[in-house]
Each structure stands twice: as structure tokens, then as C-alpha cells.
Amino acid sequence: MPRLTLIVPAYNVQGYIGECLDSVLQQDFTDFEIIGIDDCSPDGSGAILDTYAERDARIRVLHLTENVGLGRARNAGIDEATGDYLLFLDSDDTLAPGSLAAIAARLDATDDPDVLIYDYTRTYWDGRLLRNKRAELLDESGPAVFSLADRPQLLDLLQIVWNKAYHRDFVARHGFRFPPGYYEDAPWTYSSLISARSIAVLDRSCVLYRQRREGGNILRTVSRKHFDVFDQYDRVFAYLDSRPDLDVWRPALFRKMVDHFLTVLEKPGRLPKNTRAEFFHRAAKEYRSRLPEGFERPLGGRGYKYALLGLDSYPALVGVTRVNNVRNRAQLGGRARAGRAKRAALGMFYKSQLHMPLDENLAVFSAYWGRGYSCNPAAIEAELGRLAPDVRRVWAVRSEHRDRVPKGVDTVVVGSREYWSVMARAKYLTNNVNFGDTVIKREGQIHLQTHHGTPLKTMGLDQAQFPASTSMDMEKLLSRCDRWDYSLSANRFSTTVWERVYPCRYTSLETGYPRNDVLLNSTAADVSRARHELGLADGSTAFLYAPTHREYQKSFTPRLDLPRLAEELGPDVTLLVRGHYFYKPTGRLADLQASGRIIDVSAHGNVEQLYLAADALVTDYSSAMFDYANLDRPIVIYADDWDTYRAVRGTYFDLMAEPPGAVATSQEELTSVLGSQDWRSQRSAGLRKAFRERYCDFDDGRAAERVVRRVFLGEQTLLPVVPLAERTPAPSPAEALSAAGRS
């Protein structure tokens, strides 16, 4: 039997569950088991649990056939537990390093108490950490083991289940179970604490309690479900009634009940406005029926609210609240004035257009900060033209990039009068980055964020951990992300990252990347055409070299001696270089470019055509590897500065341990890999196969159609995804040449 059992229910937490499990599996204490409960989650949480269970035998997964809620999901985990102690961990929270070892050591030192209480720290999206304000109650001085009667002030801690370890025999002996509904922790925590014969404390912050910016906390959801709090305290007092020996706790639990009722009333964003009076009257009824004899109300304003409950005087409570709200309204008014000033700065024209009706048949597209016609927005725009030709499609581009838009595509220049008009009135706004801060999201507009790559490097809020790589204002970033209605994902890995690092209220669409449709749908003729347009000779080998940007370098530094590489690989090899303006035709480089041995494709407007033309991709940490993997062609990683890049920019996985193909860390190694058969060896193919299985979930050639049908046509059911094994990528250049010979 393990020493500890951690029970981790999961529901709609695919962006967080991996980090939660990692925080447990990376502990230096290893004598534990994890019971993961998939509470019939509609997202990928269950699949993520299964993936972890396949890797680590200490994890067992229960898949519930219906959604039963947090409390009953925990009960399912209790039934499967075998450890000496039960620990409950919410799936969007994490354990601090060393926590399990500290908990186990304290349990040993206190001779296995019924309950061990430890501390927690609130963690915020902006990086702030705030330890429990009542941490002093966990002072370890004094007797190591005690009952609640010795330290009754422990009831003033936030009564949650996940900051305690419970002896499993103690739980079984008393038959403790979690009830359904909101506030399910109350009956469990109060009943267990007053029943425990032996309690110990650990003055250490073990749980990192994530304060999610958006979603994830049902207690911040406006709903009648908050009336469940009455049922929960009915259970608390029913337990007390069944145990006359515990009646001494009645006044204390009455106080906790009343404080809880007032908290629900006073916290914004819980009760629907038209139910507040009803809730108050129900609370007043509970107050009067459970008032202990001789109970003394608290002093001050809190005690006055107790008295109002006793009198069932809701109008008086409203009057008290109104006084407090005057200050709050003044603060809100200041923010509103700032907002009005910002809107005024947009100009009278934009302001007037915002009051015009939305054009239900107008869609605005943009990509890469207005730099042209490309990426996912371009693929979606083309598919929209096919499926809904009545929708007018307009591209927002900067004036210096208008020549990068194909002829026949309607454009507006960013910042122009026409731009503000379409931005104010278009029903649909699509971009692979964020629109500018001055764009106002109108009610009724639909904002589609397509992203422009699978994240190897850290993104969004995670970038705050690597300040050398960004000076981004995270609050402004999330304000921009608040405009999103939909967020596209090419794979489940991306979904889990986006939902965590952009914690806003959007719907994730696991459609695949529309820009990659061409990689699945192109024919041998398309591949041949792409090569001929680049001047590639039939039978020659073309390596596409596409390095990524490095934030830690103020200016571009070439990572390869291109002339030397081209000469050493020989005349039958062409390097397609999608790099930086640094690669200007000087000296020997100019000669090789003139002969076609090196082709600068940096300004090529359609990277997918370059993918089709290339026999293999050579890259470092660019997201190009995830897209190119859909072709099932060789990928070579040139990682001469991996340790530096990972330390400065941060990455989500170890590319050296999970590469999509052969790896080189010096130019000499790269020359050897490309000059031999290593780049297309069986080992490289095996690495690519595993990589494709991890990151090519949804790209099956119908991503654009899925997006258009869901977002623009309103169809609720996405087209099914063709399994990876059944997909047929575009033929390789060799296959295309063979097909041309047969024809």
C-alpha cells in the first residue's frame, strides 16, 4: 500500500491537468498513488489522464459515464484509494516542490494523526503569489498533536478539503462522503475536524492554489446553484444532531454558517439579482431556526448584519450595502471615464460607425500585423468564398504590404477611414495575431483567433517567467484576448497551452490548421508545379532551411555558413533559405545564388508551397516543424544553441529528447547528417512517426471547411477528423516525379 493517495478529479481542465500531474510526479517523495477521475469531461482531460497513466504505473484513471460533479467524483476516487492517507488536489492547482516529502515527514513525526492541515499559496495569472492570510494558525509550536478543542481557531481557516491529509481509516470509520452541489467541502471539513481525535499542522505552503482569470471557478458563476449552501449546512447540523457528544461545537458552526451566507450575499457574481431577496429570507429563516441559546453576535458591522438576519430585514441590509457601494461606483466611474477617453481617441468617424448596424455579410481578415495575405486566415477566407460567396471578404493590410495581396482580393489599409468602417461594422473578425488595442469588440461581432503555430516556445502568460525574452504588458495582452470568441488548435497539445496561457472566455475549436489543408490535399502535379516555380531541377534534393527568431539577440546572427554548407553538400543539392534579410548576395554566396544552389525564399508569400517543394525541412525551434510533419517527410533539427534558447525563451518540451528527426548541434554534424542518409534513415522515420502521433491530431485536409461551417455558417457539429493512419499527405518530390514519368 502506498503512503499517500492523491485524488484528482478532472473536468474541462485540459489546459491545466498536465501541469498538475507533473507537479506530483516530479516530487522527491515517491511513495504515492494518483487516482485521476475523468468526470465525463467534454474536452481532452480524460485523454491526458490516460496518457500520463500509460507512462507511470502510479496513476490510475476512472472514466465516469456521466458528469456527477466535484464531490461525487472525489467519492469515486475514495472508493479506489489504497493509501494510508487521502489527499485531494484540484486539477488546476499544483503542489509546491518538496511538499509530499514534508507532509510524509510530518505524519511520521506526529504518529499518524487523523488529520494533518498544511498551508497554501494563491497564485495569480500575473505572477503574484499570496500566502494564506491566516498562516499564523499553522504555527507548529506547542503540542505536536491535539484536538480541535485545543486549537478551535483552526475553524477560521478557509475550510477546504485540499489543504489537509486525512487518514483513510479515520474517513472509513466515520463514513465521510462528499455531497453533491456547490460548497461540497463544508459538510466534509467541519464534520471531520470536530470528529478528529488527533490533528497536526504543517507550517508549509504545499498547494499552489491557482486563481484563474476566467472560468474554472463555479463559485464565480452567477447561478441559483448558490442556494446549495443551505443544503450543505443542513448536512452539517444533521451530523451534529447525530453526535450529541459534539454539541459543544454548535455555536462555532452556527457562526461559520452565518458568515458563509453573508459571503454568498455580498460577493458579486454569484446570485442572480432577482434572487438576492429570496436568498436573504431563506438565510434569515435558517438563522432563526438554528440560533443557539445564549449566542453572542460579533461586534461591529458584521454583528449588525447578524441582527438584520435575525430580524429578516432585507431593506435594511440593502441600505447598508448601498452606502458601501458609493465608493465602488466612484471607482467604476473612473474606469468608465478612461474608457470613454480611449474611444474618443479613435476619432469621430470610428465612433459614429460603431453605432451603425452590423453587416451580417461582412468579414474582415488579417494576418501577421497586416503584413499580407497568408496563413490560416487566408485559407479560411478562400474556403468562405467557396461555401458562402454572398459574404463580402475584406483584407486589412498595412499600406507597404498591399502588393503582397493577390489580385482580386478586396483590401483596406490599416488605420484608414475604410478600415475603421469595416472594423466597426463587420460581423466577423479573423486574425492570426491580435488586432490593435484601439479596436473595440462590439456586441454581436464574432472574433476568430487562428494563431500561427504550435507552441514549442513559451507563450502568453508563461512568457512572464522569462523576462529577458519579452517586455509584454500581460494585462493589455489579456484585454486583447478577451475579444476572442473562438481559438483554433491544430492539436490537443496546443489547446492545453492556449487555454492556460490565454485564460479568457472563448471556445476552443480543435479543427486543425486551415493553412495545412494544402499539405494533405495537393497532388503530384501541385508538388511538381511548386518545384518548377522555384527553378528546382527534377531529381535534385531541396532542403528548406527555416530558422526561427531569437529574442535574446539584438541583431540577426547567422547560424550557418551557407556557402560552405552548399559546397560541401554538392551540386545536386539546393538550399531553400527562408531566413533573414542578412542573406544578401555578396561574394561566394552571390555566386551560389546565381547558380541556383542557394535560393533565398525569405520573401516568398506562401510557405506551404515551399513545404511542398522541399524534400526535407531543416529548422531549429520554429513551429514550421509541426506543420511540415503533416507531409511525413524528413525533418532535421539544427540546434547549436538549445541550452541558451531554452533558458532565455522557455520551452514546453525537450526537443532534444523528443525530436521529429535527426539532430545536429554543429555545422559539421549538420553537414554529416545531410551529406549521408541520416536525414532519411529508419531511425529518423521512427522519430518522425512518434512526433506526428503527438502533434498532428487534427490536420486532415478539412480544417478550413470545419472552421467555416462552425463559425460562419453556425453548424454546431464539427466534421469528423480522419485518423492519422488513414490520411494521405501530398506526394514527395520523388513520388511526384515518378508519377509524372508514368503519365
TrEMBL record:
<keyword id="KW-0777">Teichoic acid biosynthesis</keyword>
<comment type="similarity">
    <text>Belongs to the CDP-glycerol glycerophosphotransferase family.</text>
</comment>
<keyword id="KW-0472">Membrane</keyword>
<dbReference type="InterPro" id="IPR007554">
    <property type="entry name" value="Glycerophosphate_synth"/>
</dbReference>
<feature type="domain" description="Glycosyltransferase 2-like">
    <location>
        <begin position="6"/>
        <end position="133"/>
    </location>
</feature>
<dbReference type="InterPro" id="IPR001173">
    <property type="entry name" value="Glyco_trans_2-like"/>
</dbReference>
<dbReference type="InterPro" id="IPR051612">
    <property type="entry name" value="Teichoic_Acid_Biosynth"/>
</dbReference>
<dbReference type="InterPro" id="IPR043149">
    <property type="entry name" value="TagF_N"/>
</dbReference>
<protein>
    <submittedName>
        <fullName>Bifunctional glycosyltransferase family 2 protein/CDP-glycerol:glycerophosphate glycerophosphotransferase</fullName>
    </submittedName>
</protein>
<dbReference type="InterPro" id="IPR043148">
    <property type="entry name" value="TagF_C"/>
</dbReference>
<keyword id="KW-0808">Transferase</keyword>
<dbReference type="Pfam" id="PF04464">
    <property type="entry name" value="Glyphos_transf"/>
</dbReference>
<keyword id="KW-1003">Cell membrane</keyword>
<dbReference type="Pfam" id="PF00535">
    <property type="entry name" value="Glycos_transf_2"/>
</dbReference>
<dbReference type="InterPro" id="IPR029044">
    <property type="entry name" value="Nucleotide-diphossugar_trans"/>
</dbReference>
